[in-house]
Amino acid sequence: MAPRISGAQTPGVAMESEALPAEASALLRQHDILASAGRRFASLKGSLEALRPEFPNSEIGRKLGFLAGLLLSGQRPALVSLSMGGWDTHAAQSGQHRRCLGDLGAAVSRFRQVMVQAGLWDRVALVTHSEFGRRPAENDSGGTDHGTAAPLFVLGGGLVGGLYGSQPALDDLEAGDLRPTMDFRAVYRALAQNTWSSPWLSLPRAWPYAPDLQTIFRA
User: What is d(CA 179, CA 167) in angstroms, rounded to the nearest whole number?
Assistant: First the structure.
């Protein structure tokens, strides 16, 4: 349990809020903000369940269904992160990968349908991401091992569809790995600049700029 900052004598704890370092005060404020958000979320959960439309009964289907209910309730979060397991296919990749793609495709298709019906699809951008890709060569277990590159999908009514970047060459590998043709941070940069075009937005300098991606959003 975190110590309470009050007049009570607690050994080793500063008694006055003025004595707290600026960093500690900032952490306490963030804790209060998160606690308030948690209470608000808990109070909304029941109504969100009632608003949630019918979605595929898969891991990602249930999560996108809950997100759809959140948006239909009038909430407008700037960013929501959802996870989906099953992609680490070191063995028997063919069947597992097919199931994962099927679950993802069905859930995203339903989410798009619900957002279009609610008039929200032009205000939503769905982005897939992973912490690693796969190697192009099959291993001895009928799967693929961790690699350096992977495709990244971006979907939304306000986007210009198409293929951005180029296909990595299968005959020009680096120690068995694909050579990435686009830095994923460039995609994040384009999305952030076009989605959160706010004066307070400051992007890391390490995030590269990709001119081709500036046309990904409709004018």
Answer: 10
Name beta bridge partners: 177: 174
146 forms bridges with which residues in the sheet?
134
The pLDDT tens digits of the residues spanning 157-210 come to 999 988 888 899 999 999 999 999 988 888 888 888 777 765 556 666 767 777
Grouping H, G, I as helix, E, B as strand and the rest as coil, residue 200 is coil
Q: Please state at what angle helix 59-72 crosses helix 93-117, rounded to 10 degrees.
A: 10
Helix-, strand-, coil-residue percentages of the chain, each rounded to 5: 40, 5, 50
Cβ neighbours, 10 Å, residue 178 = 20
Tell me the CA distances in angstroms from 91 to 59, 103, 138, 144, 178, one per residue in order.
Answer: 21, 19, 9, 7, 20
Residues 6+ apart with CB under 8 A from 60: 82, 84, 103, 104, 107
Calpha distance 98→192 (Å, rounded): 31
Beta-carbon contacts of 37 under 8 Å, excluding residues fewer than 6 positions away, are: none
| Global pTM value | 0.73
